[in-house]
Structures are given as C-alpha cells and as structure tokens.
Amino acid sequence: MARGNHRFIRTWRWFCFGAAQADCRCIKNTGLIDGLSSLTGKDKPVADYLEIETEMPRLLAAIQTVLALAINDYLQKGYSCLSVSLGYTGGKHRSVFAAQQIEKWVFAGFNGKV
Question: Which phi and psi angles does 81 have, rounded to 5°?
Fold first, then answer.
C-alpha cells in the first residue's frame, strides 16, 4: 500500500525477504475451533477471539515495538520501502488478523510519514 513517498508492504506468507518477520503460530490456532474454522481473520468472531482469548495483543505489541524502531530508522535514512512478513500455518486466521492490525497501526502513526 502506498502513501506519500513511502510504501508499506504487507504479506501473509511465512517466507519473505524483508526487514521484519514474525511467526504467528505461537498463537492458538483459531482454525481448529468449531465455529471459527470456516471464517478468516477479517471476520469479527475471529478477531474477538484472538483479542480476548489468546496472547495476540501481546504479540502485536512486540511486533509494533520492533517495527517502530525499523520504521523510524528507515524514515531517518530516507529509505522508501519496508517489507513485513507475518508467519502462519494456513494463512487464514491469525496472520490475516495480525497483518490488518499492524497495517492500521502503521498508517495511524508516524505523523503521516508512511
């Protein structure tokens, strides 16, 4: 996604070259829970479950800490592209949710520089 002169690339693939990579498999697999397996990380029931019943908020906070360092450094150096990869088992629930949350956080912060 592009905003201004900088690009934030979000990918849900486990493998990806880039500056930041996180593995979401440490979070309970919502794909194994009845009623959630047919949904995705974009659906409210999955999002609610991940936010309330798992350590997802803690994982997102850790990712944000690392990304804040990287983004501020990249901006200071004038770099224009940062790739962020979020790992998964199936790429449908946890990593989709995490990618959306990180994307919102990036675009809400950094005073419109990203």
Answer: -145, 130
Distance CA 42, CA 80 (A): 28
pLDDT (tens, 9 = 90+) of the chain, 114 residues, equals: 445 555 555 544 433 334 577 888 888 888 899 999 999 999 999 999 999 999 999 999 999 998 898 888 888 888 877 888 887 667 789 989 999 999 899 888 877 676
**Spatial distance between the Cα atoms of 14 and 109, rounded to a whole number of angstroms:** 25
CA 22, CA 53: separation in Å to the nearest integer? 20
For residues 59 and 45, give the distance between their C-alpha atoms in angstroms, rounded to a whole number: 19
What pTM was estimated for this model as a whole?
0.78
